[in-house]
Design brief:
By secondary structure, the protein is α+β, with helices and mostly antiparallel strands. Helix content is 34%, strand content 21%. It starts with a strand and ends in a 6-residue tail after the last helix.
């Protein structure tokens, strides 16, 4: 973790038990529940003793102004896109050169659930159904998420029937009448063929990443498991290996997953609605 610096030296990160104050009240920081290169997520208790997930964005190796703009953009998107399957934002504030988002707290992430192995078909279908709802909503509004992976899919009530929440809109992009865009950053673990081969991303890129998620939920392993990042994964994607792996499963879900993982986005499903129309035919329970 790179410690950012401000005008007076190193910026201290919040620690468990410390308090942060915004215009809406005080937050007591709990344990760290997620950490990345440019941010961390903490459990916390906010106003009225309400539990939240507190996301902190830090400058680290990025200029302060760039991080501030990314924070402001993510805040505006979360405030603008209200949907039952998109994580809810309650507060946003800057404190001591660090930027915070107070988000609704969920029980776990899909990543945590997948650590236990493959999901049962009913659970996989229900999680996928709710993700499709969120993606169709975003795509209808001209927004591409562009970072759909198991860590950004949050879950509650898994012991009963899951409630799915899509989060992290830090690299999402508003198409504004266009059909594609060139992202500034990309997660090397969920690269799409069009990004690898031509440097652009579309709505169908979100559907490709959904295919990778479905493969993982169905099999308990990543479609790129064992592949080194960098040149190896690029060749792996260019060769269409994820689609071949999906076809080789030979299960009722294979046709849907393999179509999501086609190399050319024009041959994939063209909308989340189309995905559901095929996926619902696989339900036999």
């Amino acid at each position: 973790m790179t410690q950012p610096t401000g005008p007076n030296g190193l910026i201290p990160f919040p620690t468990q038990g410390s308090t942060l104050t915004s215009a809406r009240g005080t937050y007591v920081v709990g344990q760290l529940i997620g950490d990345g290169q440019y941010g961390s997520v903490y459990e916390c208790v906010g106003p009225f003793d309400q539990p939240y997930a507190l996301k902190m964005l830090r400058p680290a190796n990025k200029p302060y102004q760039v991080v501030k703009e990314e924070w402001a953009t993510e805040m505006k998107r979360l405030e603008s896109y209200r949907h039952p399957n998109i994580v809810y934002i309650h507060d946003a504030f800057e404190l001591n050169f660090l930027f915070y988002l107070a988000l609704e707290k969920c029980d776990t992430s899909l990543r945590g659930l997948l650590e236990l192995g493959p999901l049962s078909p009913p659970l996989m279908v229900e999680i996928t159904r709710q993700l499709l709802l969120a993606l169709q909503y975003l795509h209808d509004a001209g927004l591409v998420h562009s970072d759909l992976h198991s860590g950004n899919v949050l879950l509650s009530q898994v012991d009963r029937w899951p409630i799915v929440k899509l989060t992290d809109f830090g690299v999402a992009h508003q198409l504004e009448g266009q059909h594609w865009f060139r992202p500034r950053v990309a997660n090397p673990k969920i690269l799409t063929p069009e990004l690898v081969m031509a440097g652009y991303t579309t709505r169908q890129s979100d559907l490709y990443q959904l295919g990778l998620l479905m493969f993982h939920m169905h099999t308990g392993r990543s479609a790129t498991e064992g592949v080194d990042q960098g040149a190896d994964v690029t060749g792996f994607i260019q060769a269409g290996t994820p689609r071949a792996l999906a076809e080789a499963l030979g299960t009722p879900f294979s046709p849907v997953i393999s179509k999501l993982l086609r190399r050319r986005e024009g041959y994939r499903y063209q909308s989340a609605r189309e995905v559901w129309e095929d996926l619902r035919k696989c339900i036999w329970w």
